[in-house]
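Table S7 (text form). Paired inputs.
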Amino acid sequence: MPFQHADAIRTLGVPLGVDVDTVGVEPHWSPEAGLHQPVAPGTYLQELRSAIRSMRALHDALSDGRARAAQPAPVSATAARNASERCSKLRNRP
Protein backbone atom coordinates (compact mmCIF):
# COMPACT_ATOMS: atom_id res chain seq x y z
CA MET A 1 0.00 0.00 0.00
CA PRO A 2 2.87 2.51 0.36
CA PHE A 3 2.97 3.17 -3.37
CA GLN A 4 -0.75 4.02 -3.50
CA HIS A 5 -0.30 6.48 -0.63
CA ALA A 6 2.71 8.16 -2.25
CA ASP A 7 0.87 8.43 -5.58
CA ALA A 8 -2.20 9.88 -3.86
CA ILE A 9 -0.08 12.53 -2.16
CA ARG A 10 1.69 13.32 -5.43
CA THR A 11 -1.47 13.56 -7.55
CA LEU A 12 -3.89 15.04 -5.00
CA GLY A 13 -2.00 16.36 -2.00
CA VAL A 14 0.72 18.33 -3.77
CA PRO A 15 -1.28 20.07 -6.52
CA LEU A 16 -4.54 20.53 -4.59
CA GLY A 17 -3.15 20.99 -1.09
CA VAL A 18 -5.38 18.33 0.47
CA ASP A 19 -4.50 15.88 3.23
CA VAL A 20 -4.45 12.24 2.20
CA ASP A 21 -5.24 9.33 4.49
CA THR A 22 -4.75 5.76 3.32
CA VAL A 23 -6.49 2.89 5.06
CA GLY A 24 -5.77 -0.79 4.58
CA VAL A 25 -7.19 -3.93 6.07
CA GLU A 26 -5.71 -7.32 6.72
CA PRO A 27 -6.71 -9.87 4.05
CA HIS A 28 -8.09 -12.30 6.63
CA TRP A 29 -10.72 -9.70 7.61
CA SER A 30 -12.50 -10.23 4.29
CA PRO A 31 -14.86 -13.11 3.58
CA GLU A 32 -13.62 -13.16 -0.05
CA ALA A 33 -11.38 -16.18 -0.61
CA GLY A 34 -9.35 -14.42 -3.31
CA LEU A 35 -7.84 -12.11 -0.69
CA HIS A 36 -6.61 -14.97 1.48
CA GLN A 37 -3.71 -15.98 -0.74
CA PRO A 38 -0.17 -15.91 0.64
CA VAL A 39 2.14 -13.29 -0.85
CA ALA A 40 4.71 -14.84 -3.15
CA PRO A 41 8.28 -13.48 -3.14
CA GLY A 42 7.86 -12.05 -6.64
CA THR A 43 4.70 -10.21 -5.64
CA TYR A 44 6.39 -8.82 -2.54
CA LEU A 45 9.35 -7.58 -4.62
CA GLN A 46 6.98 -5.97 -7.13
CA GLU A 47 5.22 -4.11 -4.31
CA LEU A 48 8.58 -2.96 -2.94
CA ARG A 49 9.70 -1.78 -6.40
CA SER A 50 6.44 0.12 -6.88
CA ALA A 51 6.84 1.79 -3.50
CA ILE A 52 10.38 2.93 -4.34
CA ARG A 53 9.32 4.32 -7.72
CA SER A 54 6.33 6.14 -6.23
CA MET A 55 8.39 7.61 -3.41
CA ARG A 56 10.96 8.81 -5.96
CA ALA A 57 8.21 10.45 -8.04
CA LEU A 58 6.80 12.09 -4.89
CA HIS A 59 10.26 13.35 -3.94
CA ASP A 60 10.72 14.80 -7.42
CA ALA A 61 7.30 16.49 -7.30
CA LEU A 62 8.07 18.02 -3.90
CA SER A 63 11.52 19.10 -5.04
CA ASP A 64 10.03 20.79 -8.11
CA GLY A 65 7.29 22.38 -6.05
CA ARG A 66 4.63 20.85 -8.26
CA ALA A 67 3.22 17.44 -9.11
CA ARG A 68 4.32 15.93 -12.40
CA ALA A 69 1.09 14.02 -12.85
CA ALA A 70 -1.86 15.46 -14.69
CA GLN A 71 -4.59 17.10 -12.69
CA PRO A 72 -7.37 14.68 -11.78
CA ALA A 73 -10.37 14.83 -14.07
CA PRO A 74 -13.62 16.18 -12.63
CA VAL A 75 -16.00 13.46 -11.47
CA SER A 76 -19.37 13.36 -13.20
CA ALA A 77 -22.55 13.30 -11.15
CA THR A 78 -23.30 9.78 -12.46
CA ALA A 79 -19.87 8.47 -11.45
CA ALA A 80 -20.20 10.04 -8.00
CA ARG A 81 -23.66 8.51 -7.52
CA ASN A 82 -22.44 5.06 -8.64
CA ALA A 83 -19.47 5.23 -6.27
CA SER A 84 -21.75 6.27 -3.42
CA GLU A 85 -24.09 3.35 -4.12
CA ARG A 86 -21.17 0.87 -4.18
CA CYS A 87 -19.90 2.21 -0.84
CA SER A 88 -23.37 1.91 0.68
CA LYS A 89 -23.61 -1.71 -0.46
CA LEU A 90 -20.20 -2.49 1.05
CA ARG A 91 -21.13 -0.88 4.36
CA ASN A 92 -24.38 -2.85 4.54
CA ARG A 93 -22.81 -6.25 3.86
CA PRO A 94 -23.52 -8.86 6.53
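Next pair, protein 2 of 2.
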Amino acid sequence: MSGFLGKLVLLVLVIVGVWLVFRAATRSAVPGKAKPRANRAGRQAGAETIEDMRACARCGTYVPAQGGQACGRGDCPLLPRV
Protein backbone atom coordinates (compact mmCIF):
# COMPACT_ATOMS: atom_id res chain seq x y z
CA MET A 1 0.00 0.00 0.00
CA SER A 2 2.94 2.37 0.62
CA GLY A 3 3.81 2.24 -3.10
CA PHE A 4 0.36 3.50 -4.04
CA LEU A 5 0.42 6.22 -1.36
CA GLY A 6 3.88 7.38 -2.45
CA LYS A 7 2.75 7.63 -6.07
CA LEU A 8 -0.36 9.55 -5.02
CA VAL A 9 1.70 12.05 -2.99
CA LEU A 10 4.13 12.46 -5.91
CA LEU A 11 1.23 13.08 -8.30
CA VAL A 12 -0.25 15.74 -6.01
CA LEU A 13 3.16 17.43 -5.67
CA VAL A 14 3.65 17.46 -9.46
CA ILE A 15 0.18 18.95 -10.02
CA VAL A 16 0.74 21.66 -7.39
CA GLY A 17 4.19 22.42 -8.88
CA VAL A 18 2.81 22.77 -12.40
CA TRP A 19 0.00 24.98 -11.13
CA LEU A 20 2.45 27.26 -9.28
CA VAL A 21 4.71 27.59 -12.33
CA PHE A 22 1.73 28.32 -14.58
CA ARG A 23 0.38 30.90 -12.14
CA ALA A 24 3.75 32.66 -11.86
CA ALA A 25 4.17 32.70 -15.65
CA THR A 26 0.72 34.14 -16.33
CA ARG A 27 1.00 36.68 -13.53
CA SER A 28 4.14 38.23 -15.03
CA ALA A 29 2.78 38.09 -18.61
CA VAL A 30 -0.50 39.93 -17.92
CA PRO A 31 -0.01 43.71 -18.15
CA GLY A 32 -1.59 45.79 -15.43
CA LYS A 33 -1.60 42.99 -12.86
CA ALA A 34 1.73 43.92 -11.29
CA LYS A 35 1.61 46.57 -8.60
CA PRO A 36 3.30 49.77 -9.77
CA ARG A 37 6.06 51.08 -7.55
CA ALA A 38 5.66 54.46 -5.86
CA ASN A 39 8.10 57.16 -6.88
CA ARG A 40 9.81 59.53 -4.47
CA ALA A 41 6.84 61.89 -4.37
CA GLY A 42 4.62 59.06 -3.13
CA ARG A 43 2.65 58.77 -6.35
CA GLN A 44 2.29 55.53 -8.21
CA ALA A 45 4.63 55.23 -11.17
CA GLY A 46 2.73 56.02 -14.36
CA ALA A 47 -0.17 57.61 -12.50
CA GLU A 48 -1.71 60.44 -14.46
CA THR A 49 -4.07 63.17 -13.38
CA ILE A 50 -7.75 62.50 -13.93
CA GLU A 51 -9.65 64.96 -16.10
CA ASP A 52 -13.36 65.68 -16.27
CA MET A 53 -14.84 64.87 -19.66
CA ARG A 54 -17.88 66.23 -21.45
CA ALA A 55 -19.72 65.12 -24.56
CA CYS A 56 -19.41 67.10 -27.79
CA ALA A 57 -22.70 68.89 -28.50
CA ARG A 58 -22.68 67.73 -32.14
CA CYS A 59 -21.47 64.12 -32.20
CA GLY A 60 -21.30 62.99 -28.56
CA THR A 61 -17.55 62.27 -28.57
CA TYR A 62 -16.10 62.81 -25.10
CA VAL A 63 -13.46 65.53 -24.90
CA PRO A 64 -11.68 67.08 -21.89
CA ALA A 65 -13.84 69.74 -20.21
CA GLN A 66 -10.88 72.12 -19.90
CA GLY A 67 -8.86 72.82 -23.04
CA GLY A 68 -10.56 70.19 -25.17
CA GLN A 69 -9.56 69.70 -28.77
CA ALA A 70 -11.86 69.45 -31.75
CA CYS A 71 -13.33 66.02 -32.49
CA GLY A 72 -12.45 66.32 -36.17
CA ARG A 73 -15.87 67.09 -37.64
CA GLY A 74 -16.33 70.26 -39.65
CA ASP A 75 -19.24 71.43 -37.51
CA CYS A 76 -17.46 70.78 -34.19
CA PRO A 77 -18.16 73.58 -31.68
CA LEU A 78 -14.60 73.28 -30.36
CA LEU A 79 -13.00 74.26 -33.69
CA PRO A 80 -11.22 77.59 -33.41
CA ARG A 81 -13.16 80.37 -35.09
CA VAL A 82 -11.22 82.04 -37.93
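The chain has a mean pLDDT of 75.
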